[in-house]
Amino acid sequence: MPTMKYIPRCQWCGKTGASAQSSNGAPRQTPKVPGKCQSHPSGKPNMPHSPQWEPRG
Question: How does pLDDT run across 30-47, given as a tens digit for each residue?
């Protein structure tokens, strides 16, 4: 089975973090994006990002 790269992308602002590889679906580790999200729906500028794994061929 081919290995795919995945990248964590914040669902609110689109900022990305370090990529990971997996051969059977999204990586098991929790996706992380450094810093604070300026586009968080709460409107607070010091909230953490809400990343999800996104495939990157």
Answer: 999 999 999 999 999 899
